[in-house]
Design a protein that fits this description.
By secondary structure, the protein is an alpha/beta fold. It has one domain: P-loop containing nucleotide triphosphate hydrolases (Rossmann fold), CATH 3.40.50. It is built from 9 helices and 7 strands; from the N terminus they run E-E-H-E-H-E-H-H-H-E-H-E-H-H-E-H. The strands form 2 sheets. A 5-stranded parallel sheet has the order 4-5-3-6-7. A two-stranded antiparallel sheet has the order 1-2. Helix 1 crosses helix 2 and helix 2 packs across helix 9. It is globular, with a radius of gyration of 17 Å. The two termini are 15 Å apart. Pathway: Metabolic intermediate biosynthesis; chorismate biosynthesis; chorismate from D-erythrose 4-phosphate and phosphoenolpyruvate: step 5/7.
């Protein structure tokens, strides 16, 4: 159970270990369990621009790890504030960023989480103090894939006036995203989220082989 105290409101979130779904290969599940063991409880944070697939890939990664829980910081902000992201942005971007920082700061002390973050979470230097308590992965789709995804599912994205805007947003933030521990390129439009999750797991396993994580505080 995660309890957030945000802007005077207390909000509880149930977090339970993921369960491998039907259709996930035995090899992928085995690799996921291996990664969960080698991460020693350290959280996995996914960063990237809107449309990069952080939520859907993060959920898949969580299920493959088996003993981790999945949370989405944007969803947690919405639940805590009882408003949609566009409604929160209507009160000013800084208002949203403050709420986002508060959520991240209250999530980071927990362990065994896969955390999908908002696209702009890298903009505040103070957020990196929370992100770097775990292992950070940059999901990096190419621009054509991003534009196709956003055209098919535009949703309510306050900073996106047109799908072509995502290229300039990504360019402005790339140097920040590249501070992540691991970069996972997404350049195959036919790749499924589960397949991306498999590649992410392999990439993180390679990183950990050279950079073993410390045991998080209990």
């Amino acid at each position: 159970m995660v309890m957030l105290i945000l802007v005077g409101a207390a909000v509880s979130f149930e977090v339970s270990p993921g369960v491998p779904r039907a259709g996930v290969s035995v090899r992928a599940s085995e690799q996921g369990r291996l990664l969960a063991e080698r991460m020693r409880g350290v959280n996995l944070y996914l960063v990237g621009v809107m449309g990069s697939g952080k939520s859907v890939v993060g959920d898949s990664v969580c299920r493959k790890l088996g003993s981790y829980a999945f949370v989405d910081t944007d969803a947690m902000v919405e639940s805590a504030m009882k408003k949609s992201i566009p409604e929160i942005f209507a009160e000013g971007e800084e208002y949203f960023r403050d709420a986002e920082t508060a959520v991240l700061g209250q999530v980071s002390p927990y362990v065994r989480l896969v955390v999908a973050t908002g696209g702009g979470i890298v903009l505040r230097k103070s957020n990196w103090a929370s992100l770097q308590t775990g292992l950070v992965v940059f999901l990096d789709p190419d621009e054509e894939i991003l534009e196709a995804r956003l055209s098919a599912n535009p949703g309510d994205r306050p900073l996106l006036r047109d799908t072509s805007d995502v290229a300039s947003i990504l360019a402005a933030r790339r140097s920040l995203y590249e501070q992540a521990d691991v970069r996972v390129a997404v350049d195959d439009p036919g790749e499924t989220p589960d397949q991306t999750a498999d590649r992410l797991i392999q990439a993180v396993l390679r990183f950990i082989a050279d950079n073993p994580p410390k045991q998080p505080p209990s």
